[in-house]
Design goal:
Blueprint: E1 2-8, E2 13-24, E3 28-34, E4 39-46, E5 52-60, E6 65-74, E7 77-88, E8 95-102, E9 108-115, E10 138-144, E11 148-151, E12 155-161, E13 166-171, E14 184-187, E15 189-191, E16 195-197, E17 200-207, H1 215-232, E18 241-247, E19 254-255, E20 260-264, H2 277-293, E21 301-302, H3 309-326, H4 332-347, H5 362-367, H6 372-388, H7 390-404, E22 408-409, H8 411-424, H9 431-440, E23 445-451, E24 457-464, E25 480-487, E26 493-500, E27 504-508, E28 515-518, E29 527-530, H10 534-539, H11 542-545, H12 548-563, H13 569-576, H14 585-601, H15 604-625, H16 635-649, H17 655-670, H18 680-689, H19 693-704, H20 709-718, H21 725-734, H22 742-754, H23 759-768, H24 770-776, H25 779-787, H26 795-807, H27 814-844
Parallel strand pairs: 1-10, 17-18, 18-20, 21-22, 23-29
Antiparallel strand pairs: 1-2, 2-7, 3-6, 4-5, 4-7, 5-6, 8-9, 10-13, 11-14, 12-13, 15-17, 16-17, 19-20, 23-24, 24-27, 25-26, 25-28
Helix pairs in contact: 1-2, 1-3, 2-3, 3-6, 4-6, 4-12, 6-7, 7-8, 8-9, 12-14, 14-15, 14-16, 15-16, 15-27, 16-18, 17-18, 19-20, 22-23, 22-25, 26-27
């Protein structure tokens, strides 16, 4: 494609022209390609011998197709297809769209940018808009001379157009790639000094005035690229430059446009000195995730959207693996346990979907950008990587990319490359069979572990895990790679790997074994239930017998069993008490999250009793840590302190902690470096939870005047955490005002649906304004808001929710809506089954 795009940033329109090199294989008189919301002014084909055929153009808005009917037969051979066209620079955060930012003086500036994945390149230029139709793209932009332009490849030249006030920016041709990876960004931007990595120039771009927030991004980009080239063994394929660009209005987190990666500001710009560890890690993760895509997605692209996981599962896994190489002290895969647990919750529903899921319409593509394609896919890759070994996995990655470079592939091609690599290493592992079954099968197993009547043996059995009994009984079995760690009679430890394919298997673990850990290292995508005294043996000293991720999985699996009706809430509560000595923030996160859910199910004296129990569990742990950070503390300890203080200061109602956090906040307002930044999220949450109108106005002001994206989001989201109904009504109105970007509004509105004070009012407002909301906001925001309706878990509200969504369909979210309704059933069932039982237990033990 040779294309010229000329935007009008006053009228928010653009004109364009392009010449596409095509090869005709057999005579045709019509060519069909994709076009959406474009006016095609002229179209014809020609070849170098002077033959030319004009085309009559018919546009179909439903199919998003342009049919070019020629005044003659186009014979076999090489042709050039010429089109000129006009379009709109829209405000929907997709296609060719506009974004705004304000400078220090309050002046408004515009950025015109693109977001083409999955099927929106067709709204910027007529094209064969499918991933298998790869081509090279030579982009030319004609723009006002005071603006700058960035595209996928390096700038070839720029020149002034005399008398027009415009300049031409001509970029080098790209490598062969898919249409959804084309990108151009136009605006008043500035960039960092370049950093060079193995001959590639890296720069971070941002709206003017934000360069001081780019140092972390540049550092992680350089480290990530160096480590990826080393691990993959193939240099970055897209040329000798990569630009990382912060876009103020951005629907997703980032987009892997080749050499021109675009980001939401929170995923790229950050103040290293005041940010939390989690915020810094998030920036590092997103940057490396997008860099992985330069190979997985850009160099080798899925043949069709059915194999989206070839992009997203890989980018998620390698983002974690590479970051674990760069920062081993961050214990990345412990943190990933939370993401895997979120995927397992979705995968425990009847309305989940396989990792590899058929796509028949563009709307279905958007639904696949979810926890299954990202986190479950990542988890399955992690599981097979640890089963065959990291080095064999690396060799398989290299082999796959070499075989399919600059082309397209289906899922089986990667499994075959992995199997070939393991066979070359002398291992006979049926990777294709194992992973094809995992990729094509929705759901995951529960592995039950019991002592065998035979001395020195245990019995393993598998069954499908679902939250609701009525969606069980498929009889599905998986080939499950299992790691066992056995504590022997003499205190030594040994490990085993096995593949559980049958419904039951007896395994020898040694005579007089003391204990057995199934899913050692926590790398498997399955749940574990220990029968009899096998759990008791581990729980004698969980911190000694189990690693951090193993403890997290044990608590998470047990809480999930409560939600599935397999374990009672009182039984769970008694188990949790045995984690009083826990020191890891992730283990505490599942404990506190589950206790918060139980707390929300209760009222009256039972709620007060549970509050005291929680306080008695949390306060000693905080006292052991100390309220003030030490100089050499790990980020885990700092994160845990904030989490514990946040619990005590919210539903724990600890006045001393609240006063202490108020004092810290006063200090922060004077000097942001005066407190540990990891405490700030909990400080803001506690002060909002306990705050009135004065605090609300203060937080609103801090949101409007934040000097970095993380603070802006922190104070915006806090406005949904107050407990005053009038203030929450103000927040509801705020989300639909000019003060809040459309990318943020509905994600924060979802918090109102989860706040017990505002839930009913937010639900009512959402229903009344349903049409306007769907018209004004991005589809992913609508999905987030709809998903939050699962929190409306009383029988009366559940009835309203089901009635409403029976007649109000959600475009690009039909599956997500069904999942929300099933999750709502899980929540209502849990309340109905466990609230009275838990209340009786608490009052007995009072």
């Amino acid at each position: 494609y040779d294309m010229v795009i000329e935007p009008d940033l006053d009228a928010f329109t653009f004109s364009g022209r392009e010449t596409i090199d095509i090869v005709v294989e057999k005579p045709v008189d019509k060519i069909v390609l994709n076009a959406k919301e474009l006016e095609i002014e002229e179209a014809y084909v020609y070849r170098m011998d002077g033959t030319k055929f004009l085309a009559k153009v018919e546009l179909d808005a439903v199919t998003e197709m342009a049919s070019l009917q020629f005044a003659g037969e186009v014979g076999p051979g090489a042709w050039k297809l010429y089109l000129s066209f006009k379009g709109i620079i829209n405000d929907r955060l997709k296609g060719f769209y506009r974004s705004f930012w304000h400078d220090a003086d309050g002046n408004k500036h515009v950025i015109a940018t693109t977001q083409f994945e999955s099927t929106d390149a067709r709204s910027a230029f007529p094209c064969f808009d499918e991933p298998a139709f790869k081509a090279r793209f030579r982009v030319q932009l004609v723009i006002p001379e005071h603006l700058q332009a960035i595209s996928n490849s390096r700038l070839l030249f720029e020149t002034t157009v005399p008398g027009t006030g415009k300049r031409i920016w001509q970029f080098e041709p790209t490598m062969k790639m898919s249409t959804y990876l084309v990108c151009f960004v136009i605006g008043e931007l500035e960039h960092t000094e370049p950093v060079w990595v193995n001959g590639k120039e890296l720069k971070v771009w941002c709206p003017k005035g934000k360069l001081h927030l780019t140092s972390a991004a540049l550092k992680y980009a350089a480290a990530g690229l160096a480590e990826l080239e080393k691990f993959i063994g193939i240099p970055y394929p897209g040329g000798d430059k990569i630009d990382f660009i912060a876009i103020p209005d951005f629907a997703a987190g980032a987009m892997e446009n080749l050499g021109c990666i675009t980001f939401r500001e929170t995923a790229l710009l950050i103040n290293e000195k005041t940010a939390t560890h989690a915020e810094l890690k998030r920036v590092a993760e997103v940057i490396i995730h997008e860099l992985v895509h330069m190979w997985f997605g850009d160099l080798v692209t899925m043949t069709w959207w059915t194999w989206l996981w070839l992009n997203e599962s890989f980018a998620t896994f390698l983002e974690n693996l590479i970051l674990s190489f760069i920062h081993p002290e961050w214990n990345i895969f412990n943190d990933f346990g939370l993401s895997r647990a979120a995927a397992m919750r979705l995968d425990s529903l009847g309305r989940t979907h396989p990792i590899e899921c058929s796509v028949n319409h563009p709307d279905e593509v958007a639904e696949l950008f979810d926890l299954i394609s990202y986190e479950k896919g990542c988890s399955v890759l992690y599981m097979i990587c640890m089963y065959i070994g990291v080095e064999n996995f690396r060799r398989g990655v290299h082999l796959y990319l070499k075989r399919h470079a600059y082309g397209n592939a289906e899922g089986r091609a990667f499994w075959q490359a992995l199997e070939d690599a393991t066979r070359e290493a002398g291992l006979n592992i049926p990777v294709v069979n194992i992973m094809t079954r995992w990729a094509l099968t929705a759901g995951h197993p529960l592995i039950e572990v019991a002592a065998s009547p035979l001395e020195g043996f245990i019995e393993l059995s598998q069954s499908e895990f679902k939250f609701l009994e009525e969606v069980k009984a498929t009889g599905q079995l998986w080939p499950v790679p299992i790691h066992l760690r056995i504590k022997n009679a003499d205190g030594s430890e040994s490990e085993q790997k096995l593949l559980l394919e049958a419904s039951k298997q007896t395994v020898y673990v040694g005579s007089n074994y003391q204990s057995v850990v199934v899913n050692s290292g926590g790398t498997g995508f399955f749940r574990v239930h220990y029968a009899g005294n096998l759990l008791d043996k581990l729980m004698v000293s969980p911190e000694e017998n189990l690693s951090v991720i193993e403890r997290y999985n044990l608590v998470n699996d047990t809480w999930s069993a409560v939600r599935a009706g397999m374990v009672s809430a009182p039984e769970y509560l008694e188990m949790v008490k045995r984690f009083a000595g826990e020191t890891d923030p992730n283990v505490w996160s599942i404990i506190l999250g589950s206790l918060s859910a139980l707390y929300g199910m209760l009222n009256g004296s039972a709620r007060s009793t549970l509050r005291r129990l929680i306080v008695n569990l949390v306060k000693p742990a905080l006292d052991k840590l100390g309220h003030m950070p030490g100089a050499s503390e790990s980020h885990e300890v700092r994160k845990l302190r904030g989490s514990l203080m946040g619990t005590l200061g919210t539903f724990g109602g600890d006045k001393e902690v609240i006063v202490e956090l108020e004092a810290m906040f006063a200090s922060w307002k004077v000097d942001k470096s005066s407190i540990d930044g990891n405490l700030l999220p909990s400080i803001v949450e506690v002060l909002a939870y306990n705050g009135g109108s004065e605090r609300y106005e203060e937080f609103f002001s801090l949101f409007k005047n934040a000097d970095n994206p993380q603070e802006e989001q922190r104070f915006l989201s806090s406005l949904a955490s107050f407990k005053d109904a009038d203030l929450l009504n103000k927040t509801s109105a705020l989300m639909f005002s000019e003060h809040v970007r459309s990318q943020d509004a509905l994600h924060n509105y979802a918090r109102l649906l989860g706040n017990d004070v505002s839930a009913k009012a937010a639900w009512t407002y959402m229903r009344k304004n349903w049409t306007a909301i769907n018209k004004a906001f991005p589809a992913n925001g609508v999905r987030s808001m709809v998903g939050a309706c699962s929190a409306l878990d009383t029988p009366a509200l559940e009835k309203q929710v089901r009635k409403f969504f029976a007649t109000h369909k959600v475009r690009q979210a039909e599956m997500a809506t069904a999942q929300m309704l099933e999750q709502l059933s899980v929540n209502v069932r849990l309340r109905k089954a466990e609230a009275s039982r838990l209340k009786a237990h608490l009052l007995r033990s009072k």
